[in-house]
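Need a sequence for this fold. Nothing fancy.
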């Protein structure tokens, strides 16, 4: 009676051994789904846009209203602010310890002291911004001419301007002399030579995606992830020749994309309150791994490389009447910890937001409102 059972056990072991020898493995049970693991809420006013993590300095920058708010990236506690800076985004040079924001004029500061070093006059309407490590320069992008102003991060001198032929959104560097920029109104990825400041190629998305706004890059494997709004797709391209490798569905209203080389995953943050996680199985194989529920209008994101976590921001109406919100916003700047989530709530001084202003991260909340910081991890 025992022989049949013994036979099946032997057969099972043999089949599993054969599959393993051919490279087939069972799905890992250790992989955990992404979720919101920490939050913070800060009362204030004014519009927001791009969120930026200075991973070397362990600081988080969030432009809001007329200043750039600064937080400790590990605790989310307030660490200060850059005043008189109505900005869209932030970039930091970890070598010179200089920070820059895409405002007019551009404000340059010392990232250790947060003291302003100088202001830099630029043309156009500053929007996106990027630090390019190969040349140690900062690129300030504008939807109007000139489309890019290039600044030396060491001394703040303007090196030159570039006509990209369209409206730039997010950009990514391969740290080897090439800069990739998605043009929202041209549906392409434009390639720049960072030494000559010349356009060397334009990769058309071929109707696979329109209105690209976010861009992530796998530098090692030369893969670009263009996050598009219409249709709502991630177009995956070869960075060397622009060949389209795949198209994958993402959430609505993407305005940010990042790639984490440690996990081989790309992320797209959507205004519909979702974070799409795309797994790079191989340099030619990709799949949507998960869709994480975040919060409405949390459509810009940044990567915390130390903890392999994604940081998103949005705003929501204050739960208190405007008069009470104004009083709270000008009160104590102390922080309190959310024991349930490990998050932080604080009430720094109001930042004098622009009446009737608009914002990409949370449009229409020009008055007192809560700034939400969301941390997504495993």
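Here you go.
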């Amino acid at each position: 009676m025992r022989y049949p059972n013994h036979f099946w056990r032997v057969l099972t072991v043999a089949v599993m051994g054969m599959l393993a020898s051919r490279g087939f493995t069972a799905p890992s049970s250790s992989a955990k789904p992404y979720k919101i693991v920490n939050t913070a809420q800060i009362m204030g006013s004014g519009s927001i846009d791009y969120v930026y993590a200075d991973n070397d300095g362990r600081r988080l920058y969030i432009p809001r209203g007329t200043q750039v708010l600064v937080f400790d990236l590990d605790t989310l506690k307030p660490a200060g602010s850059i005043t008189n800076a109505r900005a869209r985004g932030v970039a930091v040079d970890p070598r010179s310890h200089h920070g820059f924001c895409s405002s007019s004029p551009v404000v340059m500061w010392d990232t250790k002291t947060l003291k302003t070093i100088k202001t830099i006059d630029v043309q156009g309407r500053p929007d996106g911004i990027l630090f390019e490590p190969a040349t140690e320069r900062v690129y300030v992008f504008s939807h109007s001419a000139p489309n890019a102003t290039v600044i030396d991060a060491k001394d703040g001198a303007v090196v030159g301007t570039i006509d990209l032929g369209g409206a730039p959104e997010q950009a990514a560097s391969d740290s080897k002399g090439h800069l990739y920029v998605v043009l929202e109104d041209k549906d392409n990825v434009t390639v720049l030579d960072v030494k000559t400041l010349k356009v060397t190629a334009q990769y058309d998305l071929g109707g696979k995606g329109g209105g690209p706004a976010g861009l992530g890059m796998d530098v090692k494997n030369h893969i670009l992830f263009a996050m598009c709004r219409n249709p709502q797709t991630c177009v995956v391209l070869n960075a060397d020749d622009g060949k389209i490798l795949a198209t994958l569905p993402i959430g609505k209203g993407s305005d940010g994309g990042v790639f984490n080389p440690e996990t081989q995953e790309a992320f797209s943050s959507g205004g519909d309150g979702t974070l799409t996680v795309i797994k790079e199985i191989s340099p030619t194989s990709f799949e949507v791994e998960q869709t994480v529920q975040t919060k409405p209008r949390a459509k810009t994101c940044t990567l915390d490389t130390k903890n392999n976590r994604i940081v998103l921001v949005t705003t929501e109406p204050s739960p208190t009447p405007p008069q009470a919100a104004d009083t709270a916003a000008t009160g104590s700047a102390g922080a309190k910890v959310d024991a349930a989530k490990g998050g932080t709530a604080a009430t720094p001084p109001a930042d004098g937001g622009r009446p009737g202003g608009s914002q990409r991260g949370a449009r229409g909340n020009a008055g007192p409102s809560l700034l939400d910081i969301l941390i997504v991890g495993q």
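For context: The radius of gyration is 23 Å.
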